[in-house]
Amino acid sequence: MGEMEQMKKEAEALKTQIEAARKAACDTDMASAASGVAPAPRVQLKTRRTLKGHLAKIYAMHWSTDNKLMVSASQDGKLLIWDSHSGNKVNAVPLKSSWVMTCAYAPSGNLVASGGLDNMCTVYNLKTPVIKTVKELDAHTGYLSCARFLSDTEILTSSGDTTCALWDLETGKQKTVFLNHVGDCMCLALSPDMNSFVSGACDSLAKLWDIRDGQCKQTFQGHTSDINAISFYPSGNAIITGSDDCTCKMYDLRADQEVIGYQDAALNSGVTSLALSVSGRLVFAGYDDFNCNIWDSLKGEKVGVLSGHDNRVSCTGVPVDGMCVCTGSWDSFLKIWN
Amino acid sequence: MDELDETQLKNHVDSLKQQLQYNREKTSISLPELTKWIEEKMNEDPFLNPDVLKENPWVESSKCVII
């Protein structure tokens, strides 16, 4: 047998052993564990603001840690910084490339980042008298699907080149490259303690990575199509994913396996985005069918829906204080709901 | 896996060996703890505890005054 064939057999055997170890750890399910918990009440939210200003599809949005400002990215070639309370635009950042797929707000509020089909992550300083480009991070060989700041000096990116990377913003170079996915990486989420992150990819897998040693620690399977959205539970011990297979799934990190799925026979649109309420009890999932469905994360039941967009919901976000949820859409509008 | 070259495949196998070593917790322990964590936090969740949303930045708390 050739070496390659040998290694492929070994990989399959290891995967079988991992599955067996997971089964051995699965001595109860979520339905039993949450049987004593009352179902979440029906959630009916009102649109409090409709933010108008973009001239084309919105692809991404991200809240500032101040719970008031947020950044949105549109293929009209602009990043807009909004004061969500007043609904006013605070800043507009013209992009060199209008094919933007992601945007991010630094925890400090000083920087924002964007990236897309230009394969680059561009970082802007919002605090200089005129907004300046401070770095163009150029090393990915595929589109930039997601970016998240750890601080003003470090940023994580995920790319269509199947890798994720940690960058040093002072040198503009990659410190660590995370290699293990075999499909385009579509999304990433930082753990609450900032020591690890998870990525979702077109290989239908989610992976947990140690930021410092660059290793893939755990791999989560179950989806049958691209994973477009991923988020950590606020407790840090579970993650949730949203996929083109029209379902969301919760994976328990400690048990290393899927513990509950969020799906409906009537739903046949892909999940584009998701966000969690501060307790993690509610999941806000944006879909291709123009709606955002609200799921009870412990019971797996749909408890509400946000209808109002005239096109695909492409992004959702809940600020740190959990006081609202923002949805962004291909209809060019952002809506704030609570 | 068919798209990987020899080095990549070797790395893949090494990674799987590492991932197999992960110390898995039983769901009978992890799930009740996760459930408890979420339940305790629900009190602070503006979507689930209306008291937290009393000061809603997006709703006018007082009537408009004509100056």
Automatic annotation (TrEMBL), chain A:
Gene3D superfamilies: YVTN repeat-like/Quinoprotein amine dehydrogenase. Keywords: Repeat, Transducer, WD repeat. WD repeats lie at residues 51-92, 137-177, 178-219, 220-261, 306-338. InterPro entries: G-protein_beta_1-5, WD40/YVTN_repeat-like_dom_sf, WD40_G-protein_beta-like, WD40_PAC1, WD40_repeat_CS, WD40_repeat_dom_sf, WD40_rpt. CDD domains: WD40 (cd00200). GO terms for biological process: signal transduction. PROSITE patterns: WD_REPEATS_1 (PS00678), WD_REPEATS_2 (PS50082), WD_REPEATS_REGION (PS50294). Belongs to the WD repeat G protein beta family. PANTHER family: GUANINE NUCLEOTIDE-BINDING PROTEIN BETA G PROTEIN BETA. This is Guanine nucleotide-binding protein G(I)/G(S)/G(T) subunit beta-3-like. It comes from Cirrhinus molitorella.
TrEMBL record, chain B:
It holds the Pfam family G-gamma. It comes from the Eukaryota. InterPro entries: G-protein_gamma-like_dom (IPR015898), GGL_sf (IPR036284), GNG13 (IPR039227). Coiled coil: none annotated. PROSITE patterns: G_PROTEIN_GAMMA (PS50058). Residues 1-67 form the G protein gamma domain. This is G protein gamma domain-containing protein. It comes from Cirrhinus molitorella (mud carp). The lineage of its organism: Eukaryota, Metazoa, Chordata, Craniata, Vertebrata.
